[in-house]
Predict the structure.
Amino acid sequence: MTSNTARKAPMHSGTQSTVRFDRVGLRYGRGPEVLQDIDINLRAGSFNFLTGPSGAGKSSLLKLMYLALQPSRGLVTLFGKDIATQSVSDLEQIRQQVGVVWQSFGLLDHLSVFDNVALPLRVKGAAHDSYAGDVKDLLDWVGLGAKAGAMPATLSGGEKQRVAIARSVIVKPLLLIADEPTGNVDPQIGERLMRLFSEMNRMGTTVIIATHDRGLIDFVPGDVYHLQDAHLFQEVGA
Ligand SMILES: Nc1ncnc2c1ncn2[C@@H]1O[C@H](COP(=O)(O)OP(=O)(O)OP(=O)(O)O)[C@@H](O)[C@H]1O
């Protein structure tokens, strides 16, 4: 990727932990625990895959990582901070370091593709001229340069997914969490998106991708975690 987006991504040491779970459990309401005794430690700068059958709890685990859910028990630490003891404003700062691509995209229908991607920068108070080039470069990279002015309602599912990915990486997050990011795109675009994630990772972003697609796992070397029956296993020799 040639965009400044990746070049400016922060570097940090591989000995630090970006995400750490200690004996984390999660249940919805009064239901059974869908995640049990989850221990995981994503090193800063690592590239990680999360696999497992449908309903195994992959999305739930990622939601705990981006603080959309709270664990029923156990300890969740992000960037070295126990999230249970953080103030609301500290949690907001932590969230700003996390880019998320989730299955429902979360695009704002009244904003163009360009403005959806630029939104996180505008929220931070950045001036249009400071980010317009980066947003254009990134849209070119994900194959949507010609659709910068389009509204989300006119896009296909795969195009929406690429807008959501561009929006999540434009802020150069310390942690990128992606739930089935290549699920709706053809193989060439999927490969291109994986190269984007790999480049972000090379520049220092810790990445975790949930996927059913074993082919993706061969595409970028990384640690592979497998969820089965509410428990998490790290695949050896992956
Ligand atoms: N909001 C919710 N309320 C109650 N149960 C839920 C909720 N969300 C998920 N679950 C349950 O938690 C379990 C794990 O679901 P989750 O979506 O995390 O799995 P997944 O591995 O991401 O599945 P998929 O690959 O199909 O997306 C499932 O049994 C699901 O029914």
